[in-house]
Amino acid sequence: MRARSQRGKGRGLAAHLLALVTAVGLIVLSGPPAGSAEAASVCAGRPTRTIGFATGELRLYRTRQYACAVAVAKRQGAPRWMSVSVQPRGGRAAVDAGRFGRQAGPVTVHALNRCVRVSATIDGRSTTTGWILC
Fold first, then answer.
1. What contacts 24+ positions apart, CB below 8 Å, involve 85-93?
2. Which end of the chain lies in a sparser environment, N or C, as judged by fewer CB atoms within 10 Å?
3. How far, rounded to the nearest angstrom, does the alpha carbon of residue 41 sit from its chain's CA centroid?
4. For residues 28 and 38, what is the distance between their CA atoms, to the nearest angstrom?
5. Terminal-residue alpha carbon distance, the chain
6. Distances, alpha carbon 28 to alpha carbons 33, 41, 91, in Å
7. What is the pTM of this model?
């Protein structure tokens, strides 16, 4: 009798451990909450530069092969004119322009071993870099 009761406790403990491991796994796989800063990043790669200007900021990201940029408005709200462009040296610029409420982009270009020039405009105010990320 005693051996059976010990086995029953072992099964109960195993079931609880399995439930706990499953719950932790689901939390880890679900990722960060929607309102977190990590969820706002839409470009692949590591953040390289953030250039602030009067009406927003230009965020640059870089992987080994690609450069990506996003123009983010300081104040979200009604759609207004925004644009962001990334041009690899010796290549054509990739542009995202239009009326957006929060951000323009992401714009990604292949930039393996190449410098890039990035510009952004929000509500008529703009910023432009020289050749960077060389």
1. 85/118, 85/119, 85/120, 86/111, 86/116, 86/117, 86/118, 87/116, 87/117, 87/118, 88/114, 88/115, 88/116, 89/114, 89/115, 89/116, 89/117, 89/131, 90/114, 93/117
2. N
3. 2
4. 14
5. 75
6. 11, 18, 40
7. 0.69
* pLDDT (tens digit per residue) in 99-131: 999 999 999 999 999 999 999 999 999 999 999
Residue 1 has pLDDT above 60, yes or no: no
- Are 83 and 104 in contact, with CB atoms under 8 Å apart? yes
Structure-token pair, residue 35: 């309102």
